[in-house]
Amino acid sequence: MSPFEEGAAGFEEGAALPPLSVRLSRTDLVRYAGASGDFNPIHWSDRVAESVGLPGVIAHGMLSMAFGGRLVTDWLGDPGGVLAYQVRFTRPLPVPDVVAGVDEDEKGALLELSGTLKSVSEQDGVRTGKVDITATFEGKTVFGRASATVRLPS
Q1: Are 132 and 81 within 8 A, CB to CB?
Q2: I want to staple 79 with a disulfide (CB 3.0 to 4.6 A). Which of 2, 35, 73, 150 is the partner?
Q3: Domain boundaries defined on the chain
Q4: What is the pLDDT of residues 110-152, one digit of tens each?
Q5: Which residues pair with residue 111 across a beta bridge?
Q6: CATH class of 13-24+59-97+107-152
Q7: Which residues are bridge partners to 150 per DSSP?
Q8: What is the model's pTM?
Q9: CB within 8 A of 4, min separation 6: which ones?
Q10: d(CA 78, CA 96)
Q11: Residue 87: what are its φ and ψ, rounded to 5°?
Q12: Where are the alpha helices (DSSP H) in the chain?
């Protein structure tokens, strides 16, 4: 249940958004490449990724950013309530190749997202809030300054 369904009282400064964990596989990267048109080989070839100094194939930045947006819209309950969204990336999100015999729950990269409603303001009867978003992989941040400005219920 989103705070919209709970009423405006669910949108108090300091409120934590329900966390979101997403496991990304190389298949997800291929699907995203097809949808976005971004076929850069750093997203599918270990050889190319490593040749440019990356730890291996990495997820598309816009794909990981989309999951940050999903964190906010799931909590908000209204995708149209996102007024602005920005992310600064701090490090790439490596997505390991599938290894035979590995449990399905261990395949790919686990992106863990959380958020906090840092501030609430009101102007001309419209309540807005600033949500700070954190994304981590293996305990290390993937997003730097990531935030969304949202329209809150009155």
Answers
A1: no
A2: 73
A3: 13-24+59-97+107-152
A4: 999 999 999 999 999 999 999 999 999 999 999 999 999 999 9
A5: 22, 137
A6: alpha beta
A7: 82, 129
A8: 0.88
A9: 10, 76, 77, 78, 153
A10: 34
A11: -140, 140
A12: 3-6, 26-36, 46-51, 61-76
| Residue that the structure tokens 């990531």 belong to | 146
Q: Do 139 and 52 contact (CB within 8 A), yes or no?
A: no
Distance separating alpha carbons of residues 32 and 34, to the nearest angstrom:
5
Q: Could you please report the per-residue DSSP string of 108-123? A: SEEEEEEEEEEEEEEE
Q: What are phi and psi of 21, to 5 degrees?
A: -115, 130
Tokens of 146: 């990531």
- Tens-digit pLDDT profile for residues 33-49: 999 999 999 999 999 99
Structure tokens at 96: 């390991």
